[in-house]
Amino acid sequence: MRRFARNSRGRITALALAIGLALLPARLPRAAESSTRLEEVPIEASERDHWAYRPLADAEPPVVEDAAWSHHPIDAFVKARLEANQIEPLPTVGKATLLRRVCFDLTGLPPTPDEIEAFLADDAPDAYARLVDRLLASPAYGERYAQHWLDLARFAETDGFEHDLLRPNAWRYRDWVIDALNRDMPYDAFVRQQLAGDQLHPGDPDAAIATGFLLCGPDMPDINLQQERRHVVLNEMAATVGSVFLAMQFGCAQCHDHKYDPIRIQDFYRLRAFFESSDIFRDHPIPSSDDLARLQEAEAAHEAKYGEAEARRKKLESIAKDRFSEKHPGARYSLKKALAELSDDQRREHQQLVKLLDEAPELPKPPRGRVMRAGQQREARVYLRGDFRSPGPIVSSSYPRVLDPDDSMTDADRQQPRVALAEWLSSGENPLVARVIVNRVWQWHFGVGLVPTSSDFGTMGRETMHPQLLDWLAQRFVADGWSLKKLHRLIVTSRTYRLAAVPYDAAWSDGEREHARAVWERSGQSDPEAALLWRRGRQRLEGEAIRDAMLTACEKLSDRTQGPGIRPPLAPEVTKTLLKNQWNVSGDEEDHRRRSIYLFVRRNLRYPMFDVFDRPDTNASCPMRHESTTATQSLTQFNSEFSLRCARWLAGIVGDEPEPADAVARAYLRVFNRPASDEEIAAGVKFIGEQADRLRAESRDADTLALPLPGEQSHADEPHAAAALVDFCLALFNASEFLYVE
Fold it and tell me: CB under 8 Å to 329, separation ≥6 — which residues?
C-alpha cells in the first residue's frame, strides 16, 4: 500500500506538470507572437495639457492690499490668495517658538540653553537672518536633510527578504548624501551624480558611491532565477527614478498602460532601458579619498621594506624561465620545474625571498560596494503583464514621451544612456525636476507640500492651491544655481513660515491671543485644512528627532560622524527574534549616543523607537511619512530603558540647582526650549514634593529607586527627592509639547 501511495502521488504530480506545460504557451506568449500584437496608444494633446507637464509659467509676486504684511515674495503670493478668499492669517509666533521651530527644521536638533538665551536677548533686526545662516552652515543641517532624502532613496544597510544579508559598505552612500548637502552641491549635480556619477566622473570614488541611490532598494540574491532577480531590481529602479525625480508613477505602467496618466507600458520599459546594460549585481571598488591615502601609504611602506626583495625574486624567476626554455624547447612551463635550473645558491636565495615576502603584512584592499557600472550590452524589451518570462517588442531608451514628444534622444546619447538621462533631467528642458524638489523642500518645512502628493503630480495626485508660487519658486531655484540652502533660506525667512500653528503663544499679549482665537474660528470655517496657508500645521517630531532631542537635553549626544551604522543595545525580547549576528552591539558606548541617522538600518528590523514613531520600512521610496497615534508610542516613551536613562541623566544635570524651583525651570528650558511660567514652576515643585512623599510612604529603599546616574548625582538631600526629580524629567519627555515642534 505504501508503495502504491508513493507511485500514485508520483503519477498525480506528473499529470499536473503535464497539464501545466500544456497550458504554458497560452499563459506565456512567445516574443515573436507578442511583438506583433502590442500596439502603443498615442499620447493626446489633452494629456500633455495637464498642469504638471506644462512649461514653468513666468510669475511675478502679485501686488496685495496689505503691502506691509508681504515684503517677502513668498508672502505676496500667499497673501494674494488669502485676500481673494477673504481669509485672515494667524499672527506670527514669538521668538522662543520660532527658535525651536527653525532649529528642528534646519538641523533636526533643539536649541541649547545658551542658544536660547542669546537669541532671546538679541534685538538686532538681522538676528533671525544670522541664526538661519548659522544653522544652514552647521554640519547638523546635512544630517537632517539627508534623512529626508534617504527616505526617498529607500536606504538600508541590508538586502531584506528572508536572509536580510548585510551590505557592508552601504553606509558610504549615506555619508555621501550628508556631505553633498553640507557642501550645498547644486541639485542638478546632485541628480546627475546619483544617476551616472561613475561615467560622468570616472576614477572619482565619491561619484561612484553616489550611484548607490539606484541600488538602495531591496534585493533577493538567493532567488532561484537570477533572470527574475534582475527583472525585479530594474523595474524597481526605473519606478523609483520616475517617482523621486519626476513625481510620475511609472511603476504603475510596468504591467499595462497607466490607468490615468499618459504613461504607456512602452514608456516604462524605455525608462528602464537606460539601466538595462548596467552591471548591477557585482560589488565594485569604492574607496574614499581617505581609503586611497591609506592604501598609497601602505603601498609606499611595503615598497620601502620589500621592494628590493620582490624585484630580486622576479629576477630569479625570470632567469629560471629563460634557462628552462633554452634547455627544454616546446616543453610545458611550470615555475617548480624552472627553479630546478637555478644554481643551489640561487635556489636558496629564492626560498629565503619567498619566505620573507610570505611573512609581509597583506596590503589593505579598497572597500567594495554595490554601485552602478557599465556592463555588457543587453537588449531592452517590453515585458507583457510585467512578467519576465513574456518578453515583448524591443525598445530603446527614450525620455518620457509626454515630456519629450519629438523624441530628442539621439543614437550618440544611447552610447551612454545613463549620462543622457542625467543630463536631460538636470538641463531644465522638462518642467518637473525643479517643481518636484522645491515642492519637497516646502513639504519638509511645512509638513505638506504645495502639491500634497509630492511623488505623484499625475491626474490622481492633488493639484496645488498655489500654482504661481510653485512655478516662481522653481524658476528662482534654478536661477539661484540649484542651491538647496538658498531655497531653505528663502522659505524660512518668509512671514508665511513664521505664522502660528495654534491660536496661542506665550509671547503674545492678551489682546493678541483674543484676536488669534477669533481668526482661528473664522478662517478655520472657510479653510479647515489651511490649504491657503493662513496658519501652519502642527508637526510631530520624527522618531529620530525625538531620540536626538532627548540626548541633546541631557548633554549626551555624541558628535561622532560617518562610518558604518551603529548598533546600540536592544531589549532581549527584540534580539531573540533575530538570526545569529544580525545585531551585534557596537563596542564603544559613546557610539550608542550618536545621531540617529548613524544607527544601523536593517530592513527586517527597524530600531524599536523609530518603528513605533512611523519610520518607513525602506522597501519602497517614501515621499511622506505616515503619522499615527498609538498606545505603543506612549508605552515606549514612558517605559523604555532609553527614556529612563535620559531622564536620569537630565535629573543629574538640573538637580545641581540648590532649589527645586530652579531645577524645574532648568528642566523646562532643556526639554521644551523655552522659559517656564511661574504656574508651571509651581506645579513642577508640587509634583516633585508629592512624588517624593509617595516614594517615602511606600518605604522603597534607595537601591530600588530610579536615581540620577552614578557620577551625576543630584544635590537633593535624600534619595526619594532625587528619584522624584527623575520621574519629573521622565514626565517632561512624555509631554505633547516635547513630542511636537510646537
Answer: none
